[in-house]
Amino acid sequence: MSDGGRIAxxxxxxxxxxxxxxxxxxxxxxxxxxxxxxxxxAREYGEFGYPDVHRLTVDxxxxxxxxxxxxxxIQSVAGHLIGLYLAxxxxxxSRVVTSAIRAAAxxxxxxxxxxxxxxxxxxxxxxxxxxxxxxxxxxxxxxxxAVWSAWSPHAARIRAWATEASRSGK
Length: 170
Ligand SMILES: [Zn+2]
Prior knowledge:
Layout lengths: L1 E2 L2 E3 L6 E3 L13 H15 L8 H11 L6 H18 L5 H14 L25 H18 L4 H14 L2
Antiparallel strand pairs: 1-2, 2-3
Helix pairs in contact: 2-3, 2-5, 3-4, 3-5, 3-6, 4-6
The chain binds zinc ion.
The site of zinc ion has 8 residues, from loops.
């Protein structure tokens, strides 16, 4: 898909100028989208002082860019969806979410979940323009909620994975 030299990101579907830049080995993003994500992370690490919402940013981006089936992408997508579930539905703080994702990864046993065709009406480029940390946090929460809602056909299985992981993590 292209539009005047812009290409659709295979993950979020948004159009970005085409250029030959770096991407991630198994997160399915176009170079233009990956670059904007890099800017968002740079703001979080720098200007925003590594805020608690960082965990949600990483999980929302990865879940919106599931890539293609491989051992790495299956584990990555499962872990980030477990993260979205625990943060958004269970209200777990980021530190607890991170250890639960680690426990889930150690446990394994995931399968590829067919990604939803529409992965949410908000994407990373809607987050980059935040005016301050409060605005940034609100945008990331809205983004993560949209992505989690898009994956809702698989919610029962993701909840089960998260529950198994939190049992084995104890
Ligand atoms: Zn994208």
